[in-house]
Amino acid sequence: MKTRIFASLLLGTAIGLAATSSAFAQDKTVKIGALSDQSGLYADLGGPGSTLAAQMAIEDSGLTAKGWKIDVISGDHQNKPDVGVNIARQWFDVDKVDVIVDVPNSGVALAVSNLVKEKNGVFLNSGAGTSDLTNAQCTPNTIHWTYDTYTLAHGTGTALTKNGGDTWFFITADYAFGAALERDTTAAVQASGGKVLGGVKAPINTADFSSFLLQAQASKAKVIGLANAGSDTTNSIKQAAEFGITAGGQKLAALLLFITDVHSLGLKAAQGLNFTETFYWDLNDNSRAFAKRFQDRMKNHGMPSMVHAGVYSSLVHYFKALEALGGNPHDGAKVVAKMKEIPTDDPLFGKGSIQPNGRKIHPAYLFEVKAPAESKGPWDYYKLVSTIPADQAFTPLADSKCALLKK
Amino acid sequence: MTAMTDDTLPVTPRTIRDEMIAFAIMTVLLLVVPLTGLYPFFVMQGLCFALLACAFNLLIGYGGLLSFGHAMFLGTGGYVTAHAVKVWGVPPELGILIGIAASAGLGIITGVVAIRRQGIYFAMITLALSQLMYFIYLQAPFTHGEDGIQGIPQGHLLGIFDLSKPTVLYYVIVAGFLFGFLVIFRAINSPFGEVLKSIRENEQRAISLGYKTDHYKLLAFILSGTLAGFAGSLKVFVVQNASLSDVEVGMSGLIVLMTLVGGLGTVFGPVIGAFIIVATQQYLAGFGSWVTVIQGSIFVACVLTFRRGIVGEIAHLFRRSL
Amino acid sequence: MQALYAQLLVGLINGSFYALLSLGLAVIFGMLNIINFAHGALYMMGAFCAYFLLNIFGIGYWWALLIAPIAVGIFGMVLERTMLQWLAGLDHLYGLLLTFGLALIIQGVFQNYFGSSGLPYAIPDELRGGMNLGFMFLPIYRGWVVVFSLVVCFATWYLIERTRLGAYLRAATENPTLVRAFGINVPRMITLTYGLGVGLAALAGVLSAPINQVRPLMGENIIIVVFAVVVIGGMGSIMGSIITGFALGLIEGLTKYFYPEASNTVVFVLMVLVLLVKPTGLTGRAA
User: Fold this and answer.
1) pLDDT of B4 over the 80 cut
2) What is the mean pLDDT of chain C?
3) Residues of A in contact with B245 (CB under 8 A)
4) Among the ranges A153-167, B109-123, C109-123, which has the highest mean pLDDT value?
5) What is the per-residue DSSP string for B14-66?
6) Structural domain span for residue C31
7) B253 in C contact zone (CB under 8 Å)
8) How many Cβ atoms sit within 10 Å of the Cβ of residue B38?
9) Does A41 contact C136 at a Cβ distance shorter than 8 Å?
10) Residue C205 pLDDT more than 60?
11) Is B1 among the domain residues?
C-alpha cells in the first residue's frame, strides 16, 4: 500500500516536472496583440487596418498549414499611456500574448516598450514616430519599423530648407511625438543652414488651431512646420487656408502625413504638400498587389497606410525568425536577436536590415501631393520627388544614444 | 441641507458590532486572495479605488458635501509620489509620506476656497478647482504631460519588503487599505464624526449649539483629500505610472459613481462599489465606448430608483448598519 | 500689437460660445435649479444634428440653425418629462448626478458609432472667405459667429427679463404653488424652459460645427469652463452669464498673447478669486 502510494507520488511528480519543463520548451503557438488607437485621431492610419494587416501576414506566412497556431487580438489604447500599459500588462500576464504590434502614439509606445522589456516579450512598433525608441530608450525587446522622426526631419525638413524655406516656426503636438519631431527637424533645418524662429505647443486632439496659426503667421517664418499627425495635421492645414496663411506666402510643412490624411483633406486642399513616407501603395507591383487585397477586405475600402504596411512587414520577418528557431521559445529577447541576425526581404519594403539598436532600415521617399487635374482616380494622390537611401534615412549608428550599442 | 443620506441608522453598540463583523469578514477575504486564482493586479487596483471611494464617502456621506473634484487628490498623491520615487530616488515609504503631505496641502488650500459655499455650488467649485489642477499638471514639466510618469520603480518598502514581488506588494496594499479604512471608521465613530453628522442634518442648529461648523467641514475636507491622496500614492506602486487620466473630470465622476453604486453614507458601500466599477472597466474593456454608456446608465438608474446603493439596500433590508 | 488684436478677436469668438452655452445653463439653473451637466453633450448633439441634416437629408446650414435647436430641444424636453421630473422634490445634487449620467450615455453612444476624432462640416458657401482687417485676416464665418451670438444672447435676455412669458417663467420658479393658483400650467413651463436652454446649447453646437469639427467629445471640456463662467457671472443671472462669457473669451485671448501657458487655467483662477471676494458671483443673487 505504502509503496504504491510512494510510486504514484513519484510518477505524479515526474509527470508534473515534465509538464512544467515542456512549458519552457519551444512550441508552435503564437499570440499577437495589435494595440492601436481604434477610435481616435490615429484610427484611420492604424486601428482596424493594422489588425487586418496582421491577419494577412499570418495567412501569407503559410505557418498554419505547417501546424502552427497563431492568433491575433486587438486593443484600444485611446492615446493614453496608462490605458495602453494596462492592456499590455494584462495581455502578457493573463492572455499569454507573445508580441505586440502597431502602437501609434509615441507616448504610449515608449511606455509599452518599457513594459515589454519587463515581461520579456516582443514589441514590433510600426505606428509611433519618436526616434527615442531606438536611441535613448532602446531595449533588447523592441524593433522600430516603418519610420521615425529622424526620417521625417531629414526628408521633409532638409528638402524644404534647401528649397528656400530657411526660417521655420513650429506648431507642435504637446507630447512625446511632437517634441521628438520638433527636436529632430530643428537639427535637420539647422544642419541645412536654416533658422528656427520659434514655436508653440498645442494639445493633442485640438480642434481649433486659430490662435496657434495666428502666432505662426505673426512670426513671419517662411515655413510653418506642423509637428503633429492625424486629424491635428488635417485641421491645421484646413484652418491655415481659412486664415489666408498659405495665400499670404507662408509654406506649410506637413512633417507627418499619411495617405488617409490626404484622402480626408481632398486633393484641392492638400495639393503641393511635400512630405516623407516609406511606403506608397502605387510604388511597384508588389505594393499594388498587397494594396488591392487590403482594400477589398477593409470595411471602409481604404488603401493601406505605411503603418499598415509596417505591421504586415514586421510580422512576416518575425515569422521567419520563429521558423529559423524551429518554434516559439516565448523568450522575447531571443526572438528579437534572431530577427536582427536575418536580413529582411518582404514585398512591401524590399531588402533591408535591422540594426543592433532595433532600428529597421529601408529607403524613404519624398512625395508631393498631386493637383486634382493630375490624379487619375481615387487614391492616386502622390508623385515621387526623390528617394532617400536607407543609410541616410535613419540615425547613423555612430550618433545613436542607445545603451545596447555600448559594448 | 442635503437629504441624500437620510436613512443611516443612529450609532448604537449594536451597529458598531455589525460593522466590526463586516470588517472582519472583509479582512479575511482580502487576506486569502493570493490563494485563489484571482488576478492580483485587479484586486490591488480595486483596493486603491476602494480607499479613494471611502475617502470621498467621508465627505458626502457624513459631511453632506458632494465633491466633484476628488480626482485632484488622487492625481496629486500619485504624481508627487511618482516623482519622488523615480526622480529623487527616495524609498517607497518616504515617497508615500511626501505624496500624502502634498495632498494634505492641496486639501487645505482648496478647502479654504470651497467650504465658503455649500450644496451644488460646492460641487461646482470642487469641479472647477479639479480642472484647474488638471491644466496645471498638464503644463508642469515634472508630470511629462500627456506621456505621464512611466516606469516607476517599486523598490523595497522599509528596506525589507520587495515590492516588485506581486504577493508582497499585494499584502502591502491590503495593509495600506485597511489602515486608511480604519482611520475613516474611527473618524466617523468619534465626537468629530457626530458633529459632522449633525452639520449634515441641520447646519443652522449645529451653529446655534455653538459649533464652528466651517472648521469641522474644512477638517473633514482635508482628511478626505489626504486619504484620497494616500490612495493615489499606493496606486503608483501597483500600476507603475502616474498620468493625466488620474486628474480628469471623468475620474471624479467615476469616484462619485463608485460610491453611489455601493451606497452613499454606508461604511462598506464604497468598497463594493469600487470593485464593481473597476471590474466593469477591466472585463468590459473589449466593448470600447459601451463601458461609458453602461456607467452612465448605472448612474441614471441609481439616481432614479436605487438611491441607497447596493450596501444601502442590504442594510435597509436587514435593518443593520453597514 | 497686431498679434494682440488678432488674439483678442479669436478670444471674442471663443467668448461667443461661452456666452451662448452659459446662457442656456443659466436659464436652466435660474428657472429650474438644475445643474445641467448634460449641457455639453446636448451642444454636441446640436452639431451632430447639423451634420446629419447635411449628409443624410441634404439640408444646409441655414435650415440647420433652425431645425437642430428645435430637434434637440424636443429631445431635452423628453428627458425632462421622463427623468428630471422625478427629482423635483429631492436634493439638487441628484439633478447634477442624473445629468452627469445622461451626459456619459449620450457621449458614449455617439463615440461608439462615430469614433472620437472629428467629422468634417464645411463652412456654408455664403460665409466663406475672409476680410483683411489690417491686423489680421478674419474669416467671415468667425465674424458671423460673434454677431449671431450677440443677437441671440440679447434676444433671450429680452425674452426672459422683459416679456410676459418671461415673467411667467420667472414667477413659476420663484413660487410655483402661487403661480399654479393663477391657472398657469407650471410643469409645462418648466419643461419648456428646459427645452429652451437645451435649444440654446444645440444652437451653439451648430455654430461651432464648421470651426471645431463635429466630434462626440466636443462638449466635455468646454462644459466645465462654462460652469466656471456661470459661477463667476452669478448662477441664475442671465445678463451676468452673457457678459462674463464674452469677457472671459477676451481675457483668454489676452492671456494667450502675454502668457500662453496660463490660457487654460485663467478661467478657474478667476473663479477662485471671485468666490473669495463675492461668493454669489458678480451679479448673482444669494443661493
Assistant:
1) no
2) 86
3) 80, 82-83
4) A153-167
5) HHHHHHHHHHHHHHHHHHHGGGSS--HHHHHHHHHHHHHHHHHHIIIIIT---
6) 18-214
7) yes
8) 12
9) no
10) yes
11) no
Residue B307 lies in a domain: yes
pLDDT digits (tens, 9 = 90+) for C211-238: 888 888 888 888 888 888 888 887 667 8
Tell whether C250 is covered by a domain.
Answer: no
**Domain of residue B256, CATH code:** 1.10.3470
Subunit partners of chain A (3 or more CB pairs within 8 A): B, C
The segments of chain A whose pLDDT lies below 50 read 12-24
Binding partners of C (≥3 Cβ pairs within 8 A): A, B
| pLDDT tens digits for range A320-351 | 999 999 889 999 999 999 999 999 988 899 88
Helix (H) or strand (E) holding A318: helix A306-325
Q: Is residue C285 part of a domain?
A: no
The pairing of beta strand A360-361 with beta strand A251-254: unpaired
The yes-or-no verdict on residue B47 having pLDDT over 90 is yes
Q: Is the pLDDT of residue B219 over 70?
A: yes
How would you classify the pairing of strands C130-132 and C137-139?
A: antiparallel
pLDDT at B2: 45
What residues 257-276 of chain C have any CB closer than 8 A to a CB of chain A? 260
CB contact under 8 A, A43 and C7: no
Is B293 close to C224, i.e. CB distance below 8 A? Answer: no
**Could you tell me which residues are beta bridge partners of residue A252?**
A224
Domain count, chain B: 1
From the centroid of its chain, how far is CA A82? 19
Measured between CB atoms, which of B116, B123, B296 is closest to C101?
B296
C-alpha B277/C-alpha B269 separation (Å) is: 12
Query: B 52-71 residues with CB below 8 A of C?
Result: 66, 68
pTM of this prediction? 0.87
Contacts of C137 in chain A (CB under 8 A): 243-244, 248
Burial of residue B94, with CB atoms counted within 10 A of its CB: 0-12 exposed, 13-18 middle, 19 or more buried: middle
Q: Give domain status of residue B2, yes or no.
A: no
Per the domain annotation, does C4 fall within a domain? no
pLDDT per residue as tens digits for the range C65-83:
999 999 999 999 999 888 8
Centre a 10 Å sphere on the Cβ of residue C154 and count the other Cβ atoms it contains.
Answer: 12
- B7 within some domain: no
Regarding an ipTM greater than 0.85, the answer is: yes
